[in-house]
Amino acid sequence: MKTLTLLQPESFAYSDTEKPSSLLPNEVLVKVHKIGICGTDYHAFWGRQPFFQYPRILGHELGVEVIAIGSEVTEVTVGQKCAVEPYLNCGECWACERDLGNCCENLQVMGVHTDGGMREYIKVPAHKLHVSEKLNYEQLALVETLGIGAHAVERANVQSNDLVLVVGAGPIGLSVLEFVKLRGAKVAVVDRNTQRLDFCLDHKKADASIVANDQTIVQILEVFGGKMPTVVLDATGSPASMHQSFNYLAAGGRLVFVGLYQGDYQFNDPSFHKRELTIMGSRNSKPNNFKEIIAAMETGELSVDSWISHRITFEEVAEQLPKLYTEPSLVKAVISWE
Ligand SMILES: [Zn+2]
Ligand SMILES: [Zn+2]
Fold it and tell me: What is the mean pLDDT of residues 188-199?
């Protein structure tokens, strides 16, 4: 079967590998139809993904078809279309025991810590597959990215009367915006990139946009009628932005870090106490998020077709992936076999 391996930073290689044959009782063999490309893939290519080991088969945003099932599999049947939950948790650690598989102490993310789906077939534990009878493979490939936003909004416990600010209008920020909108809250998005902000407004993903500059707070107050946001979700992973986000909250506000960076975070304690803030992290997503996203996409309540700015074939990935990263019009790229 066709396989694409990232041998080391900036070096992809296509090869012919053996199609997986024997399945464990709880395993499923799937055919990969569509693959979303995300920040992690670009960072891995450029050698900027921390703790990343090479060689690695990338691909963790997958729309797949069930080809064969292990002897004890009851969750799926041959021919079904599925999204893959790529977070392989151990099921035994203290986090897993408390239903926090997304924070498993031994977490292995497919396409990041173990080999992923940039190949024709892959074996997946049955309980990591989420079936849809209605969605197409491209839609299913976007469910994982959407999960990041769904989980973050769940963490923030956004209510319809919240004033919400999303910082960062890249794919993760967009994914956050989708779920804030579903909860009926007023939401503004802030970014330095006006093209990204225009996309959010043009596609009605946010009620207002704010260009990040030294007048950001003034603009926030304008947008929310003189009030500061009750929820801020930062999807930048930029330390400068994350430090600013702390200053954007009203009393009782919740700050959720969706993006992360490799360093220490500091804040002024009186400013934290005075407003009685809550600061939280959001990591990956959970099985219920996959189920809810698929249900919302099936009813049409959630539509992300406008996200896909680039479609490339599997054969083009090695050449196109590095170029896509600097493409100004890039929102989301999807790989197909045809
Ligand atoms: Zn991703
Ligand atoms: Zn675990």
Answer: 95
CA of 177 to the centre of ligand 1 (A): 16
Confidence of residue 49 (pLDDT cuts 50, 70, 90): confident
Helix axes 171-182, 143-156, angle to 10 degrees: 60
Nearest ligand (C-alpha, residue 106): 2
The CA 89 to ligand 2 mean position distance, Å, reads 5
Q: How far is the CA of 145 from the centre of ligand 1 (A)?
A: 5
d(CA 37, ligand 1 centre) in Å = 7
Ligand 2 mean position, distance from CA 110 (Å): 15
Q: Which two tokens stand for residue 177?
A: 């915006």
In whole angstroms, what is the distance from residue 48 CA to residue 42 CA? 8
Percent of the chain topping pLDDT 90: 94
pLDDT confidence bin for 33, thresholds 50/70/90 = very high
| Nearest ligand, CA 95 | 2
CA dist 220 and 248 (Å) reads: 8
Gap from CA of 125 to ligand 2 centroid (Å): 15
Q: Which of 33, 107, 31 is nearest to 76 (CA)?
A: 31
Q: Is residue 183 within 8 Å of residue 158, measured between CB atoms?
A: yes
CA of 151 to the centre of ligand 2 (A): 18
Give which of 27, 138, 45, 147 is closest to 87, Cα–Cα: 147
**pTM beyond 0.90:** yes
Span 219-233, pLDDT tens digits: 999 999 999 999 999
DSSP tag of 102: G
Q: Which amino acid is at 144?
A: E
- In the reported structure, the alpha carbon of residue 100 is separated from the centroid of ligand 2 by a whole-number distance in angstroms of 8
Residue type, 163: L
